[in-house]
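Hypothesis: this fold can be encoded by more than one sequence.
Test: take the structure tokens below, design a sequence, compare later.
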């Protein structure tokens, strides 16, 4: 039942006075008496001059508001912090939980009957879903949508798989400074999130699969009129939820999380999405176990041909049929009794046949892009609690590889030495980066270690790389990530030394440091944790952040 302005009253010890005062102050914003009695839909808006991916926020807010008003409600826009991926130091990951806390507390503290969350850039949608699930007020997720592609010398360009491809060509001396400057202006030509199946797109597809975003809304380009229609419908849907509440905890369940994990495999989605989905699920007390992840990955083919795994861009995905077409391919494997914000079950969403699907982009289950899912978890003496590997974006000839470790002790060491002509490294070696995990460095996207310049110039395009860091969802290569426990807390990664042998086996889903267990233990007795920050958010972060297999949420925010 709607309560509007009388929700979450300010504590003065006199509820009537609190409501009287609130109504009076609401009038100062020019609201008529009639609207003061209307149900309220909060709109979590995340515009920022430091977030290009949210450039369309004003028109999305307007369209959501229109939908709310059309259904007799009162839209109230409120800000939360915004996280623009490339504008944050040391990494946006450090602030995801802060945004989640901001979102949760502002939903809970302010008077609203339902909320529409508008996000898009990598960490914003996870943060909003984590916060909304903990607040558990009826909620609809709306994403800002992907960028459209630019053009360069006859080929399409999209952030940011092509950013990395061209940067690699520049580092290897294939293109000059003038051309890379031209490309810089053509990679990100419209508003919206990265144009490929990176983290933002993966999280949009996950939100749609979970049922917390409207069916068909994940892949609509940011600049399309269809996105404004989806925004208006999101506002209308929030009003429907005021009348017939379905809470996030009814939508984000063990079954819908499993559906989302399966879709993540089928779309060749981002490694980061595993961390985020784990953190979201953790707010409901649901665990994403690596063994189950591997089982789902082995059962689920990649059916979507998009960069960084394949060829297309998000604009192609939308035109080809979007998430719903992928869900139809996976239907026999999905839980069909999960709920969507529009009141339908997954089974009802997928009843009937699709109009048309572009099979160049969305393959049939029996004719997939690759027969196995895009992501797997590895375990072994180097990662006793697991690591993540994106096999769909890796070089198959390196799947079974043993090599000599070339170790970088941290991010500064990496930056200082990776291009040193004297670096003792060959293409068969394994690059190892330590101390870039959650507690060590807030887990930046540094796991995609650059190929040492001298090897890049010889034409080396890929090497096995291992770290406790993350990797951008738009990146590709034979990269082992999220090694747990991380080096900073004395995980086995901390024990690796230059020249040690390491073995990667995708077949066995293993990653092993080929050093005697006693010797690893002996080396770790000398391990020193990094100094703790003395104050502020950095101190809270380092003291309470969980490891990657727990989603890097703060320990006091997960469900207990
Ligand atoms: Fe925002 Fe890529 S930088 S989604």
């Amino acid at each position: 039942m709607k309560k509007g302005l009388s929700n979450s009253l300010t504590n003065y010890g006199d509820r009537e006075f609190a409501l009287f005062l609130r109504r009076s102050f609401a009038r100062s914003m020019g609201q008529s008496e009639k609207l003061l009695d209307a149900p309220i839909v909060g709109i979590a808006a995340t515009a920022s001059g430091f977030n290009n991916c949210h450039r369309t926020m004003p028109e999305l807010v307007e369209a959501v508001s229109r939908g709310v008003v059309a259904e007799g409600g009162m839209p109230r826009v409120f800000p939360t912090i915004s996280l623009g991926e490339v504008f944050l130091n040391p990494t946006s990951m450090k602030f995801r939980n802060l945004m989640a806390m901001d979102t949760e507390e502002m939903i809970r503290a302010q008077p609203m009957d339902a909320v529409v969350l508008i996000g898009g850039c990598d960490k914003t949608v996870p943060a909003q879903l984590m916060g909304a699930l903990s607040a558990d007020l009826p909620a609809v997720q709306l994403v800002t949508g992907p960028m459209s592609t630019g053009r360069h010398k006859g080929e399409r360009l999209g952030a940011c798989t092509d950013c990395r491809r061209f940067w690699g060509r520049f580092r290897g001396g294939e293109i000059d400074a003038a051309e890379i400057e031209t490309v810089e202006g053509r990679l990100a030509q419209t508003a919206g999130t990265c144009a490929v199946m990176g983290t933002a797109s993966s999280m949009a597809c996950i939100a749609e699969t979970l049922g917390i975003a409207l069916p068909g809304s994940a892949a609509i380009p940011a600049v399309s009129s269809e996105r404004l229609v989806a925004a208006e419908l999101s506002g209308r849907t929030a009003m429907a939820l005021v009348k017939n509440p379905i809470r996030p905890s009814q939508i984000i369940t063990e079954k819908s999380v499993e559906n989302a994990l399966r879709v993540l495999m089928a779309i060749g989605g981002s490694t980061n999405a595993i961390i985020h989905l784990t953190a979201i699920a953790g707010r409901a007390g649901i665990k994403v176990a690596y063994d189950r992840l591997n089982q789902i990955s082995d059962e689920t083919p990649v059916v979507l041909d998009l960069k960084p795994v394949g060829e297309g861009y998000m604009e192609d995905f939308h035109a080809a049929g979007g998430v719903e077409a992928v869900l139809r391919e996976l239907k026999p494997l999905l839980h069909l009794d999960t709920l969507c914000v529009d009141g339908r079950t997954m089974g009802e969403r997928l009843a009937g046949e699709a109009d048309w699907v572009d099979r160049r982009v969305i393959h049939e289950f029996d004719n997939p892009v690759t027969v196995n899912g895009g992501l797997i978890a590895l375990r072994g003496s180097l990662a006793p609690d697991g690591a993540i590997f994106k096999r769909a974006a890796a070089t198959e000839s390196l799947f079974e590889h043993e090599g000599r470790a070339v170790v970088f002790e941290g991010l500064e060491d990496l930056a200082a030495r990776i291009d040193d002509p004297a670096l003792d490294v060959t293409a068969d070696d394994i690059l190892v980066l330590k101390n870039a995990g959650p507690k060590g460095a807030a887990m930046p996207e540094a796991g995609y270690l650059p190929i040492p310049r001298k090897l890049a110039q010889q034409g080396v395009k890929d090497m096995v790389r291992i770290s406790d860091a993350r990797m951008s969802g738009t990146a590709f290569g034979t990269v082992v990530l999220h090694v747990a426990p991380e080096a900073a807390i004395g995980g086995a990664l901390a024990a690796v030394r230059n020249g040690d042998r390491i073995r990667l086996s995708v077949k066995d889903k293993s990653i092993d440091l080929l050093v005697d267990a006693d010797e690893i233990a002996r080396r770790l007795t000398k391990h020193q944790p990094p100094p703790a920050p003395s104050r502020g958010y950095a101190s809270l972060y380092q003291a309470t952040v969980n490891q990657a297999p727990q989603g890097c949420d703060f320990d006091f925010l997960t469900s207990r």
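The first strand starts at residue 40 and ends at 45. The pocket of FE2/S2 (inorganic) cluster is lined by residues 53, 85-86, 121-122, 193-194, 198, 200 (CB under 6 Å).
Hypothesis status: open.
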